[in-house]
Amino acid sequence: MGLNKYQWGAIIAALLSPAVFFIAKGNTTTPSLQLPAQPKPSNNLKAFLIMIQYAEGTLGVNAYKTFYGGSLFHNLSRHPNRAITKGGYTSTAAGAYQILYRTWLEVQKTLNLPDFSPISQDRAAIELIRRRGALEDVLNGRFAAAIYKCRKEWASFPGAGYGQGERSVFSLTQVYQSAGGVMAA
Predict the structure, then answer these.
(1) Integer CA distances (angstroms), 149 to 108, 144, 158, 181, in order
(2) DSSP 28
(3) What is the pLDDT of residues 82-99, one digit of tens each?
(4) What digits encode the pLDDT tens for the residues 154-173?
(5) Residues 6+ apart with CB under 8 A from 105
(6) Can you tell me whether residue 67 is helix, strand or coil?
């Protein structure tokens, strides 16, 4: 099953997102915006971040302002910490990467993130990938290994086991490659 025209449009919009563009270009001239444990971001990292947004159902122009369940918030000065119940689940997940409030507090403190802006959310997602031991896999195109290692971070990943909808490896691969990600040989 392929992606429809709306999903392709969302991928293109995400590719043009200022925060993803910032990371893809490796703009790390401001010390407070340095990426954790990663000297130069790659196209694989950008593609993996876009793929997470797709998997979590946030891909598109409102990705960074999306609550769990799909409604929007507008204040990006801090994580909204609002528990939303939908489909029998209650979650404080918010933003492009659907980061839980308690997880956000840990990562925000570790990275000294000033707000919940797109750049801060992207940096937090990269830190979560790193914490799962998958950053080198992402950078080197070891897609299956990275998905496996991150499956407990994002409920939408195959094998997450949280009882929520999990995306297929095939659909995640399509998005990743469409966003410029390259698989290791």
Answers:
(1) 22, 9, 11, 18
(2) -
(3) 999 998 899 999 999 999
(4) 999 998 988 788 899 999 99
(5) 79
(6) strand
Task: Supply 67's token pair.
Answer: 């609550």
| Structure tokens, 49 | 């971040």
Q: Where do the domains of the chain lie, and which CATH numbers do they carry?
A: 5-63+118-178 (1.10.530)
Euclidean distance between CA atoms 48 and 54, whole angstroms: 10
> Quick one: CA dihedral 107, 108, 109, 111, positive or negative?
positive
Token output for 73 = 């918030």
Which residues are known to be catalytic? 56
Give the separation between CA 129 and CA 148, rounded to whole angstroms.
Answer: 11
Among the listed residues 175, 165, 180, 181, the one whose alpha carbon sits nearest the alpha carbon of residue 2: 175
The helix-helix angle for 169-178 and 5-15 (nearest 10°) equals: 50
